[in-house]
Specification:
The protein is an alpha+beta fold. It starts with a helix and ends with a strand. Strands 2-4-5-7-6 form a five-stranded mixed beta sheet, covered by helices on one side. The chain has a two-stranded antiparallel ribbon with strand order 1-3. Helix 2 packs across helix 4, helix 5 packs antiparallel against helix 6 and helix 6 runs antiparallel to helix 7.
Length: 338
Amino acid sequence: MKKGSIIYHFLFWLFAYIFWVFIFRNGTLVLTHAITIQFCYLLFIAANYYFNTLYNIPQVLNQKQYLKFGGLFIVAIAITALIRVPVSMLVTLYVFKVAGAHFDYLNIFYNSFVNILFWVGLILAGKMVGEKIRSEIYIEKIEKEKAANELNFLRAQFNPHFLFNSINSIYGHIDKSNKPAREMLLSFSELLRYQLYECNVEQIELDRELNYIKNYIDLQKSRIDERIQVSFCDAQIGGNLKIAPLLLITFIENAFKYVGFNEGKDNYIKICLTHQESQLIFKVINTKDGCISMGEKSSGLGIANAKRLLELLYPNKHLLQMNDQEDIYEVTLTLDDV
């Protein structure tokens, strides 16, 4: 557990302990006796609570194994109630030093079972109700964000047919001898077509995504200093691999946007994609101005969005590493189960 979570749990059990000592204190017992008895109960109740929250609920109840869950729940309480019988005897004889005390074992077990069952059930019920409320608040927040995003998307929409007709018109007016300009416009048209018509899915074939990336790289090569070397290697990735669309392009855009040129040094953008043992490893390295850090040059909004996208689409299945050195910026993204 995280440090904050440990402190929260500690404070919860501390307040519960104090509550039990002073609210449920038997008037016939001195305070020290109440403290000792309630501490023993605290241990057994906490043990049952963590058994259920760490194993019984997530591994059994959430798998809809209701009979098994109920059986384990009762058995665990019965075991702790049974253990409390000799504990109660030892405390009475050696802590309270009551000589010749008579013990009703069945009564001790019954009282222990009822008390532990009541408090474990109450605490677990409170926890589950709290989680339900938090879950509903989170779902409501997500729904609001989704509605806002859809609204923003609709507001940002343009007529794709008008756009492509405009591109075709511009293409027709470019002199046929100006081959680079015509090829750039065609590449730009392909990029738009991919974004508008092919990216409305959660997963897309990696080959199609790679084709988009290559078109983007070819388009960007025409605008940067020709002395900056650009290389792209996909290691002949094969198979029917799929990936979230437009996931990698943010890091490539970042490299082209902030690539620096240093006199007397090799200046480059290196992009590499490999697939090893169900892991997709994507790496982008670019030279940069050694006097300026990437954090100073960029607000980082695109990278922040990419991180959020990774959290949503690849939870616990990705590793993003960014290395900002004096004259080189490197990004390595590893995706599992691809």
